[in-house]
Amino acid sequence: MVTVAHIVRKQMQNKPFIQECMNKELINYGALADYLKDDIEQELGQEVNPLTISMALRRMETEQQENTLNKIEINHQTDLSSKSHLVEYVVRKTETILDNINAFYRDIKVEEGDYFSFNQGMLNLVILTNERHMTRIEELLADEPIVSKRTGLGAIFMSIKGKCRDTPGFFYLLTRSLAFNNVNVLTLTNIDREVFFLFENRDLPRAHKVLYDLLEDNWK
User: Fold this and answer.
1) pLDDT tens, residue by residue, 41-63
2) Count of other CB atoms within 10 angstroms of residue 207
3) 116 Cβ neighbours under 8 A, 6+ residues apart
4) Backbone phi and psi for residue 2, each to the nearest 5 degrees, phi listed first
5) Cα distance between residue 25 and residue 106, in whole Å
6) Does residue 69 register a pLDDT over 60?
7) Is residue 162 a contact partner of residue 130, using CB atoms and an 8 Å limit?
8) Which domains are present in the chain?
């Protein structure tokens, strides 16, 4: 049987920012109940007392607070580092592309602060490196079909505890905090105990602060 509580949960699944405000206790439940009332009545097929909706919202908030999504455990193994002025190339897969990437990789000097990574998709490769290497990499890619090139990028690297990866919704928590603060994430990837975020350079300082504050709030 469909209940008001069931419909409230369904409605709130599509409203992550309202859920975030609920978690921060910034919501007036009476006003939110009035806002949801018409949609809930339409789906339920009968009139609903706003107080019933408000009670369902409060029960949902209590459950959210007890959920593992709101219990990130951070310790001294967790830290943040960042790198700016990166360039991203999206290149078509060809028979020669890996040879050219390997040739470029041999030029990289990690000890001098060089950065290089690439990921493979079904059709394309994504190459990310320092902007100062654009001339060299474009020489190597001269005969390769470049789909796109994007400069002015910055990255943040976050080390995490192993069990964070096994927590359902852990990565959602990270992106939710960034989205709630109007920070756009271009890329999010994970390798073992490291999370990699890619942003526009202009968003890098704000993104770093949002993630730093998130870690501070959940330090154990």
Assistant:
1) 888 888 889 899 888 888 887 77
2) 25
3) 104, 105, 108, 127, 128, 129, 130, 133
4) -75, 130
5) 53
6) no
7) no
8) 4-66 (no CATH), 80-217 (3.30.2130.10)
Q: N- to C-terminal Cα distance for the chain? A: 42
How do residues 165-204 score in pLDDT, each as one tens digit? 666 677 887 888 898 888 999 999 888 888 899 999 999 9
Among positive and negative, which fits the CA dihedral 37, 43, 47, 51? negative
CB atoms within 10 A of CB 31: 11
Question: How far is it, in rounded angstroms, from Cα 95 to Cα 97?
Answer: 6
Distance CA 182, CA 207 (A): 9
Tell me which residue of 189, 169, 183 sits closest to 212, measured CA to CA.
Answer: 183
Q: Are β-strands 116-120 and 194-200 bridged in parallel, bridged antiparallel, or unpaired?
A: unpaired
Q: pLDDT category, 146, cuts 50, 70, 90?
A: very high
pLDDT value for 179: 87
